[in-house]
Amino acid sequence: MIPVDILLENGAKKRLFEKNEYIFREGKKAHFYYQIFSGEVKMNNFLENGKEFIQSFFSAPRSFGEPPLFANIRYPANAIATMDSEIFLLEKKAFLQLLTSHPLIHLKITEALATRLHYKAIMAPEISSQEPEHRILRVLDYLKKEIYKLEKPFSFKVDLTRQQIADLTGLRVETVIRATKALEKKKELKIKNRKVYR
């Protein structure tokens, strides 16, 4: 995303967030641009029944939480560190000035946002109507091809727990376990040492 030297030149500060620490909460105003230096962040919502719904995972050097900065709206989800994570924080005003003075960086941010919108547009009907096996493959293929840029069969080692896959697809853990076993039988997935490969 934004080169570290440019972030620092514009006043960004690097902060450590411990595992399970909130970076921001749903409903709060946006004051910073966030970019991961190390670690991982998940964006989620908690439903009325207490069940977690995971919007997405982000790892270095990706950014997250930008739409409310541009639209001047409140965060629609929480951002939580899934492990100890170092994250650059850049104040909103400085971030917008940086984009004005660096049009190529502005374009990269726009491309990243467009990719995320595309993912949400694809996944919304998938989660609401498709069979469990199909939902799981859609999420894994998006991560494999769009995030990690992998193409070869079974080159993508899925570093998600069964619970995380369930939270990403709106399924129950038991359903994910059954579906992944069925997909292995169909040679759509490989399972080695309890790890899933796509």
Automatic annotation (TrEMBL):
A GO molecular function held by the record: DNA binding
Cellular component annotations (GO), alphabetically ordered: cytosol
Signal sequence interval, chain numbering: none
Keywords per UniProt: DNA-binding, Transcription, Transcription regulation
Protein name: Transcriptional regulator, Crp/Fnr family
UniProt-listed Pfam families: cNMP_binding, HTH_Crp_2
InterPro entries: cNMP-bd_dom (IPR000595), cNMP-bd_dom_sf (IPR018490), Env_Response_Regulators (IPR050397), HTH_CRP (IPR012318), RmlC-like_jellyroll (IPR014710), WH_DNA-bd_sf (IPR036390)
SUPFAM superfamilies the UniProt entry points to: cAMP-binding domain-like, Winged helix' DNA-binding domain
